[in-house]
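step: validate -> pass
step: tokenize input -> pass
step: predict -> running
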Amino acid sequence: MESAAGLLTRGSPFAAFPASRPVASRDGRLPSQRRDRPGLAPGSLTVLFVEREPSSGRLTAPLARWLPVLAWAAVIFAFSSVPDLGTGLGTWDTVLRKLAHALEYAILGALLLRALGRLWPAFALGVVYAGSDELHQNFVPGRQGALRDVLIDVAGVALGLLAWRRLSLWRRSA
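step: predict -> pass
step: emit ->
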């Protein structure tokens, strides 16, 4: 008597899911790429959606690009949720906090450009997040959102985009 798995798959995972079977021929071409039989063969498009073997354990490219963005956005959100970040240093306290704002958003801008690969969408997303962060601070006791802080954050995003672009150009030329 066959096992339950054998009944479902008839001994092969490809028997149960034929669309997941590789359809390229021995020379690596899809059936639609063969000169003797042009046109699309049934199942040939399914290969386009296979990025990796499920057992390889590697992250897919989009996840590897967006995970740092999401993690850094969570760090910014966590800092924005702290009721009072004052150090008691007077003017230096204000200067250091504004520089920290610019730096954290410069990092976000660089990560967004790395994830998106396009300058203006990365800048727009950074601006939207900066605005939402200041809006969030209005609901945190002891904090308040300010347009001045949004502008500092946007300047930080722009600096991060510029730095990432310069670094990318430098790496290509090296």
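step: describe -> The chain has two domains: 4-49, 61-173.
step: cleanup -> pass
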